[in-house]
Write a structure and sequence with these properties.
Elements: E1 14-16, E2 21-23, E3 25-27, E4 34-37, E5 40-44, H1 46-57, E6 72-73, E7 78-79, E8 88-89, H2 90-100, H3 108-120, E9 146-148, E10 151-153, H4 168-185, H5 188-206, E11 209-210, E12 215-218, E13 232-233, E14 239-240, E15 242-244, H6 245-264, H7 268-284, E16 298-299, E17 305-306, E18 317-318, H8 319-327, H9 333-344, E19 358-359, H10 385-397, H11 401-415, E20 419-420, E21 439-440, H12 446-453, E22 459-460, E23 464-467, E24 475-480, E25 484-486, E26 489-497, E27 501-506, E28 509-510, E29 519-522, E30 529-536, H13 555-561, H14 579-586, H15 592-614, H16 621-644, H17 653-681, H18 687-697
Helix pairs in contact: 1-12, 2-4, 2-10, 2-12, 4-5, 4-6, 5-6, 6-7, 6-8, 8-9, 8-10, 10-11, 10-12, 14-16, 14-17, 15-16, 15-17, 16-17, 17-18
Length: 700
Amino acid sequence: MRRLSRPRPFLPTLLFGASVLLPIACRTAGPPDDFVGRFYAGRGDVEYLELLDRARAMFEPDPRFQSLPMLYHAAWNGLVEGPTWDAWWIQNSYGTTYGALPFWREPYLTFIQNSQDLWFDQMGDGKREGGEPYKWIAPDGCLCDCARPGWIFYKQGDGRVDLHDWGMEFTAAGVVLQAELLLIGRDAAAIARYLPKLERAADFLESRRDPANNLYLAGAAGNLLAPSYAGWKKPDGTYDKAYLAGLSITTIAALDRLIELEKMAGRPEKARLYEERRELSRRGLPLLLTGEGYFIKSLDPDGTRHGVYGAAKYGYFEAIVNHDAVAFRVADDAQAERIYAKITSLPGLRPHDLIITNYPSLDDLYVEPQGLWEFGRWTNGGHWSTCETRMLLAYYRLGQTEDARRSMKRILGFADRFRMDNNLVNFGSDVYQPKEPINTVYDAWGVPAGFVRGLFEYLYKADRLEIWPHIPAGIERLEQKFPIRFGAKRLFLATKGKGPVTGVEINGKAWTDFDGRTVSLAYDKTPDEARIEIALGSAALEPSGSGAAAAGTSASARAQASVASDVDRADGPIPVIDMEALAKGLSPAAPPEHVAAAQALAARIERFQAKLAAAGLASTYEAAHARLVAEFTAACRERVRLKAAGDLAALPEASQTAADRLYFDTAVKLADGLAKALDLYSGSDDPPKQRMAGIWANTR
């Protein structure tokens, strides 16, 4: 399926908890290099701290700007690619999901699992037909390009689909996402449910290994950013499979995570099997390298190399495989530096601060590079935010935080105009659907996700979590005020100083499991709620017992920070949700009967959450979804107030109307989706769902 600026100064943006108004991006009244926001506090490079705060804020309801809940889809109680893309894609969600998983909470965890289930519940089994119009029957273990309920595309569906291979690298990326979700959550029941599916996918990938060289064969559009790869064009003009470098890189990343899951599940023999496959895959990588140390795009069986920059034929640089190799640590440190050096030597790869897919134009497409395929557009030199996420992770790994800063600032030029579209056009400077008054696609959240995850990287293992601090040199102190997930544990991170890791305290007690680059947290030794303070360079931590204040800045900054509550708190009353007032202020053309129904449902959700709290169920997904309804409607109320006060940034009239309506429609969708999910519980055999169904029924 085809996916067919001017930065604004930071404002004191407002976010809402269940009942409290919280500042999220403001300078303190203290020294000018102090910063306190809702999600970050610190001292030093205030602009960078503001960017971090804004990045994290984009995942929560916000009265001024587009936010992740606007991509909620009631049809499958999950997330959707966007209002003009009614399905869930692997290549588009790859970066955003991977970047956001460590800090996501409920109900987003349920939302993303429901979305990914569209792939895994309909994965190829050698029998199931795919969706109209092609009805392909995929091999067992094959995932897809995209899916919605009762409909799945096992191949990329644009271009010359008669040539296209199965979703090879799509499958590898899908394994990365699901395995990462399971590694972070550490839920034994979920691992038992999904591990057999991941193993089937791994076997499907293994079926394409050539034992002669340990590389993976893929045909046209078998790459992750399909259909920008044609495979091997043979002398007779027909197309066949070639050795796709991205398939090796992404499969290794998938095996890294599958090995850890098998260990966690107590299956050492399976872990050894995948370790052997990973080792074989790594042995093949030298065949895909240039003398400068970067990866080519593909290798034809006759020895022709595609993606050797400067070559007379196929002489482009393929960015995706290279930044992915750095981001997922498939490339070692020395090679990662060589890859980055090559990227920086080619200004054409980042003409607008954002990485494009390739430079110069592809000359090995199976069509002419014109129209949709012209250089600088879509999959031939366009910019994809899902790829930018992985580029950001690579920047952080290499300490190139100025590159990360430029990336985040550039994407805000779109965000502030309500154009969180995929800027696929004109080398990343223009949006793909310019005739829409506003737009929202899931890919675009990859930049803030990568900007946040890259700061500490987070490598999840079977028995531990490795934290790799990549703090910009201009930040003297930093406090990350929201929790990172580690199974059922919640981690709050803070740093002081700059340079290598020289000391660590957890909840005021010395922690010795670290080296100059990483902090290692054994799961069985990490407290359920851990305040982790990391000294960098010559910095000394605050006296033991000071807790998160070690990363606070001045006394006044710490005092301001103390009023903020965690974004994932499970208590607090739900405010009254006045859908009629919201409709009047945001969507006056909404039919009265529609508004009345929404108001009745909102009142029922208020009663539902009260009953959950009374039953000790305030920490459940269902309660979190109800809180999100309240939080989002609170943001809607504040938007109405800001409009009345003339305190919203002006948009063109059509865009302003569409933006306001999006707020109201999102509030209604969030409420409607929860109601539909709870109604389905009445037919469940699961006791917790039966209990929820009973509580819901008693709110009529």
